[in-house]
Specification:
Strand content: 5-15%
Low-confidence stretches: 1-40, 302-306
Order of helices and strands: HHHHHHEHHEEHEEEHE
Oligomer: single chain
Structural class: alpha+beta
CATH architecture of the largest domain: 2-Layer Sandwich
Shape: elongated
CATH topology of the largest domain: Alpha-Beta Plaits
Distance between the termini: 19 Å
Strand order of the largest sheet: 2-3-1-6-7
């Protein structure tokens, strides 16, 4: 459970952990970073390819004979932007910018095929280049918040998401729960099969978890074999139902096969409701206490209201 001690803490107590949670939640996120980290499914390097191709075309337009017809904008620019837009997750904060950039590229390609003056092409091309550069920077900032092993958003993204949900609850009411998950038999996997298999096991669990959540839920890796779920529009009773469904569905199939053996997953969970009158540290502390209670009760049991 030590992974729940935040980076700022070395051997601190639960009160210190709660205070650290509130400090981290107050940090500002990188510009353009989405709360749920869902933007991070773009093909690797696609925006970089767009930027480089567009820059090369602009250089050609600037260096061309003013009396000559400018070169056509490469079709790959529009194709790559369309690919990026299709790959971006629904509701992603990058989607509007990618859609606008695609429209700009389509218009610029039509202009380059006509009798548009070079000066106009350069002006419009620079505008598109700036938009693509901004999108590339935003995507890189979001990537920095991903856990490299599982591909899930990490602890800072979690705290930002929970802070956002708290703000929503203060405005609109409704429900939202947080669930702390801890794998029950992860240490024996590492001890018996090695850390490489353990890493595969964690990554497979993260994938199985994400694939079974509702579209508006979010999963985060907090550290070690601990994961966190943010469950908007769910009461504590409904959140425990979600946990039971996840445990049943994930436990039906092996996560990893190694040395001729199938490795399955089981986990315990602690559930707590977000409360606008409580700090994130208090809420996470409640979920953490209930997770410990589930472990003491024999594991594989979600614990909600104490």
């Amino acid at each position: 459970m030590g992974a729940w001690a935040f980076d700022e803490i070395q051997g601190g107590n639960r009160a210190s952990m709660a205070a650290a949670a509130d400090r981290v939640a107050a940090d500002s996120r990188p510009p353009g970073c989405a709360d749920d980290g869902a933007d991070l499914q773009l093909p690797a390097g696609v925006l970089r390819h767009v930027r480089r191709s567009l820059s090369h075309w602009l250089e050609g337009v600037l260096e061309a004979n003013p009396m000559a017809r400018p070169a056509l904008l490469p079709g790959q620019v529009e194709q790559w932007l369309a690919q990026a837009l299709q790959a971006a997750s629904h509701g992603s904060s990058l989607q509007p910018g990618l859609a606008d950039a695609l429209q700009q590229a389509h218009a610029l390609q039509r202009m380059s095929a006509g009798a548009t003056p070079s000066r106009t092409l350069v002006r419009e091309g620079l505008g598109l280049l700036m938009r693509v550069s901004d999108l590339e920077s935003d995507w890189a900032a979001q990537q920095a918040w991903l856990d490299p092993l599982t591909g899930l958003p990490g602890r800072r993204a979690l705290l930002q998401r929970l802070q956002s949900e708290l703000s929503r609850l203060r405005r609109q009411g409704d429900h939202c729960c947080v669930a702390l998950l801890d794998l029950d038999q992860f240490k024996p996997v590492n001890d018996q099969f090695g850390h490489l298999v353990g890493d595969r096991y964690l990554a497979a669990f993260a994938g199985a978890l994400s694939a079974r959540l509702r579209s508006y839920d979010a999963a985060f890796r907090y550290g070690g074999d601990e994961f966190v779920l943010c469950l908007p529009q769910a009461s504590e009773q409904e959140a425990r139902g979600v946990i039971e469904r996840l445990r049943r569905d994930i436990g039906e199939k092996p996560l990893v096969n190694t040395q001729g053996r199938d490795l399955f997953a089981a986990f315990s969970a602690g559930v707590a409701a977000l409360d606008p009158h409580k700090s994130l540290g208090q809420i996470l502390g409640e979920a953490d206490s209930r997770l410990y209670a589930a472990k003491r009760a024999g594991a594989q049991r979600p614990v909600g209201v104490a």
